[in-house]
Design goal:
By secondary structure, the protein is of the alpha+beta class. Helix content is about 35%, strand content about 30%. A hairpin with a 6-residue loop joins strand 17 and strand 18.
C-alpha cells in the first residue's frame, strides 16, 4: 500500500507536470478538460495494475537459489541438464486457502490497525462533509425566490454571494439582480457551466479527494480542473461578446466583497491575472496540435515507470530471512516431492519469513522440519493470519495438505502417493456451514478424474455425482 501511495503521487505529479508545461497555456480548453479528468483517473489506477496482473509461472535455471518457495508451489522441478525448468508459484487452489487454527496476531498489527483506523475516520468525516455540502445547497435553495429563464432556474439569495451555479441552477444576490447589476454576460457565463455540466466534474473530483485526501497531487488537479471550467465559460461568453475589456470589468464588479460556495462553479474562482490574460491570448491550432501529439507516448512511458513488475529470481515473492534451494526427491519413477536445503546443503529446520519487497511488511511465514514444509501462514494487511495450510506426512512422504481461511477449514488435498496406488483426492467445504461442498478423486493428476466426483448442497445432500475412470466419464449417477 505504501508503494501504491508513493507511485500514485509520483504518477499524478508527472501527469500534472505535462499539463503545466504543454497544455496549461494553450487555448484548447475542451481537450484540457478531458486530459485533466483522464489523467486523474489514470494516475490513481496505473500504479495499482500490478495487483491485478499476477503471473502464474516463473522460469529459473536448475540449481539456482529460489528463496523460501513452499513445496506445494513447485511442479516439475528436477536437477536435470535442461536449460530451464518451471515453477508454478500461484496455482489456482492457492486462492482458496484458509485455517481452523486460531488467528494469530503480529507485532505490527496494532500499528497497521491504527493507521487504517485513522484513514477510515478522516475519510468518513470528509464524506459526511461532502454529503452535507450538497444537502445545504439544496436546503438553502428551497427558501429562495426563483426566476425562470428558459430551462434555467435563477435563485435569488439574500446573502452577498458571487454569482455561481450548481447542476441546473444559478445563484445570484437578490439585491444585485433586482437592481440590474447582474449583466447578461455574467448569466451567460454561469449558463455555460450548466450546459457543459461542470458540476459533475467538481463532484467527481470532490469524491476523489474524499478517498485520496492524503494525496497532494489530487488537489493540484482539483484546482486546475476548476480554473479550466472558468476558461471554458469565459471563452463561451467571449465568442458572442467581442468587448473583452467590458466583460473583464463586469467580472471584477460582480465578485467584489462576495463569498464563494463550496462544490459550486463560482464566478470569482481564480479570478487572477492569468485568467484575464487568457481572455486576450490568441490561439494557435498548430502549436496546440503539436503539444497534444507530444502526449501520445505518455501513457506507455508511465506504465513502464510506475507499473514495472521486477522478478528477482533469488527472492521471487519478496525478501526471505533464509535463502533456500529446492531439491527434488524421487520416491519412484512416478512420484516425487520437493524438500528444501540451505545454501550450505543442509536440510532446513525452522521458520522462514517472507516480507513484502516494497513495504517490508511480513506477508508469509513457512515452518520447515528436515527440509519439509510443516505449516505456511499468510498475513493480511493488518498483520493477522488470513490463510494457513497444514501438511501431513507418512514415513517422510507428503500425505495430505489442509487449507484454512480465517479459522475455517476450506479445502483438503490428498497427494497421489505410491502407497495410495497414485490415487489422490480434492475436497472443498462451505466455510460458514462447515459442510462439504465438493469431493473429487483422481489418478496421478488432479485433472485426471478417477472415481467419484460429487457436489453437495449446504445441507450436505448430494446434488451431482459422476464416476470416472482414467479421466473418462463412465456413469452420471445424479
Amino acid at each position: 500500500m505504501i508503494a501504491y501511495i508513493l507511485n500514485s503521487i509520483l504518477c499524478l505529479l508527472a501527469l500534472f507536470l505535462f499539463y503545466r508545461v504543454l497544455l496549461a497555456n494553450e487555448k484548447c480548453y475542451r481537450f484540457n478538460r478531458f486530459y485533466l479528468l483522464a489523467a486523474l483517473v489514470l494516475g490513481l489506477s496505473l500504479p495499482s495494475l500490478d495487483f491485478f496482473m499476477g503471473s502464474d509461472q516463473f522460469i529459473f535455471r536448475p540449481g539456482e537459489e529460489v528463496a523460501g518457495l513452499e513445496a506445494e508451489k513447485l511442479t516439475a522441478i528436477k536437477k536435470a541438464p535442461s536449460v530451464f525448468v518451471t515453477g508454478h508459484l500461484f496455482p489456482q487452489n492457492e486462492v482458496m486457502t484458509g485455517t481452523t487454527a486460531p488467528v494469530e496476531e503480529s507485532s505490527e498489527a496494532p500499528v497497521q490497525f491504527l493507521i487504517f483506523l485513522g484513514y477510515s475516520c478522516v475519510t468518513f468525516l470528509l464524506l459526511l462533509r461532502f454529503i452535507y455540502s450538497i444537502y445545504s445547497i439544496y436546503k438553502r435553495a428551497k427558501g429562495m425566490e426563483s426566476v425562470e429563464i428558459g430551462t434555467t432556474r435563477i435563485r435569488l439569495a439574500e446573502s452577498y454571494v458571487a454569482p455561481h451555479s450548481f447542476m441546473d441552477t444559478i445563484f445570484v444576490n437578490k439585491k444585485d439582480y433586482k437592481e440590474g447589476l447582474i449583466s447578461d454576460e455574467i448569466l451567460k457565463h454561469e449558463m455555460a457551466h450548466i450546459e457543459d455540466k461542470h458540476t459533475l466534474d467538481i463532484l467527481f473530483v470532490e469524491l476523489v479527494k474524499v478517498v485520496f485526501w492524503f494525496n497532494p497531487a489530487v488537489y493540484l488537479f482539483s484546482r486546475a480542473i476548476k480554473i479550466n471550467h472558468e476558461f471554458l465559460a469565459d471563452n463561451r461568453v467571449l465568442s458572442e461578446t467581442k468587448d473583452v475589456t467590458a466583460y473583464q470589468d463586469q467580472l471584477i464588479k460582480a465578485t467584489e466583497d462576495h463569498s464563494k460556495v463550496n462544490l459550486a462553479s463560482n464566478l470569482n474562482f481564480f479570478l487572477t491575472k492569468k485568467r484575464l490574460l487568457m481572455m486576450t491570448k490568441s490561439s494557435s491550432l498548430i502549436s496546440s496540435s503539436i503539444k497534444i501529439a507530444a502526449l501520445t507516448p505518455l501513457i506507455p512511458i508511465l506504465i513502464l515507470l510506475f507499473n514495472s513488475r521486477v522478478i528477482d529470481r533469488d527472492h521471487i515473492q519478496g525478501i526471505y530471512e533464509t535463502q533456500l534451494i529446492p531439491d527434488t526427491v524421487a520416491v519412484d519413477k512416478n512420484y516425487s516431492f520437493v524438500q528444501f536445503e540451505t545454501v550450505e546443503g543442509e536440510l532446513f529446520t525452522g521458520s522462514n519469513k517472507l516480507f513484502d519487497p516494497k513495504t517490508g511488511i511480513l506477508k508469509k511465514e513457512a515452518i520447515f522440519e528436515n527440509g519439509r514444509s510443516i505449516s505456511i501462514k499468510t498475513y493480511n494487511g493488518i498483520g493477522q493470519v488470513s490463510f494457513r495450510s497444514i501438511f501431513e506426512y507418512e514415513e517422510g512422504i507428503p500425505e495430505r495438505q489442509r487449507y484454512y481461511m480465517l479459522g475455517q477449514l476450506f479445502s483438503e488435498y490428498t497427494y497421489p502417493t505410491p502407497s495410495r496406488d497414485y490415487q489422490g483426492m480434492q475436497r472443498y467445504w462451505y466455510t460458514e456451514e462447515g459442510v462439504m461442498q465438493y469431493e473429487a478423486h483422481f489418478l496421478m493428476d488432479p485433472d485426471n478424474f478417477h472415481g467419484l466426483v460429487t457436489a453437495f448442497d449446504t445441507q450436505g445432500e448430494i446434488t451431482e455425482q459422476e464416476r470416472y475412470e482414467n479421466g473418462q466419464l463412465i456413469e452420471k449417477i445424479k
